[in-house]
Write the structure tokens for this entry.
Amino acid sequence: MYTYEVFAIRYATMKRKASENFMGGDPHEEASDLDYFVWLVRNEKRAFVVDTGFSEEVGKRRNRFLLRQPVDGLRALGVDAAQVRDVIITHMHYDHLGNFDHFPKARYHLQDDEMNYATGRYMTHSVFSHAYEPDEVCNLVREVYRGRVLFHDGDEELAPGISVHRIGGHTMGIQSVRVHTKIGWIVLASDAAHFYANMNEVRPFPIVFNIGEMVQGFRRLRELADAPELVVPGHDPLVMQRYPVAGAGLEGLAVRLDVAPK
Ligand SMILES: [Zn+2]
């Protein structure tokens, strides 16, 4: 069985109230800040980048605080974005899709349902469309016409030890990534679970397309991982505390996920 090293690269952050992150959350509860990540999965043979993050311009317009360009985070871990061949797009929300000009050789792995959702009738409603950037969506459509998008439908193995799984819920076609590591199977949930508490306490995140699939998805994520604590949520600042720093000079910027969490 192939094993991979896995990293979370924190590239931006934002202050939020708990009521913005949990359905029915009390507005007087303490802050529940959001971190923004891209992820790297690699071994001697190959590297997969999971999501590409927003551009500086989009981050500025949406008032998110960019800590470091996602591609600079990859470079700090020894990966040149220009050489990356496989990028997994978990879903097409603005904070997961951008910076394509830095990935000239990439193929993009995406669920059929996500492209259908991002280009179909639901985007005529701002409640669903506000988290998408039309220009970035169009960039991915262009990649379809260049033959660079690999569509998946449900569960698919990309290579031995790494597979994608359509979860749905948060968006119609969000997918999570299951990876075999030296500590067993871990799952990069991305926004199928923004926070540990969304999943562990079954308190859904309020940006949602299908709440039934979101809640069912929390269970599915746990089934895919070898242990519940090996599901890595998409935006939780606790990820930076539970896992060890990825190397010298990377404090607050990258942690290693193929090591047992605290
Ligand atoms: Zn997100």
Remarks:
- The chain has a mean pLDDT of 95.
- DSSP finds eight helices and 13 strands in the chain.
